[in-house]
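Q: What residues go here?
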């Protein structure tokens, strides 16, 4: 059951990754943004920024809310612990950098709350997400590899 759920989550993650990569490739020439650039974005560019932010948040939520706990449970780790302890275990396994995860989470939270008088923070968060989304994508791939290594050991 855990195995099937993890496989399904990794399939979902791949959809988010494809959307992130496509949005990034279409936004590449506009990045990094400054306030003037941000205010002069055309509708298509605004839509791509929305897709980037939305898919980034969805991927991060998927990993943090579902995959981390399940993959540790699948590996035999006691998951009845605080979330920070789960993150620490993933860091010990060499899958995750805790400080980077927290930075990504903070940026995700910044873009989740759009306030018109807070454009500078939103722009900073968008630039950060654009630049650091590759870490999130690589983390997803590492988690999937980690899962398949555990699965392979169990299957033998």
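A:
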């Amino acid at each position: 059951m855990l195995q099937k759920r993890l496989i399904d989550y990794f399939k979902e993650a791949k959809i988010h990754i494809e959307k992130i990569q496509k949005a990034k490739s279409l936004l590449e020439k506009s990045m990094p943004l400054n306030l003037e650039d941000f205010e002069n974005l055309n509708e298509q560019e605004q839509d791509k920024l929305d897709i980037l932010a939305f898919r980034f948040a969805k991927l991060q939520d998927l990993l943090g809310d579902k995959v981390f706990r399940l993959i540790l449970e699948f590996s035999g780790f006691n998951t009845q612990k605080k979330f920070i302890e789960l993150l620490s275990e993933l860091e010990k396994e060499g899958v995750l950098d805790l400080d980077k995860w927290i930075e990504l989470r903070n940026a995700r939270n910044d873009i989740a709350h759009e306030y018109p008088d807070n454009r500078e923070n939103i722009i900073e968060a968008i630039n950060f997400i654009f630049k650091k989304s590759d870490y999130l994508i690589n983390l997803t791939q590492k988690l999937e590899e980690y899962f398949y290594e555990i699965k392979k050991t169990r299957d033998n």
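A: Context that may help when evaluating the design: The helical segments are 2-27, 35-39, 43-74, 83-92, 98-112, 119-155. The mean pLDDT is 91.
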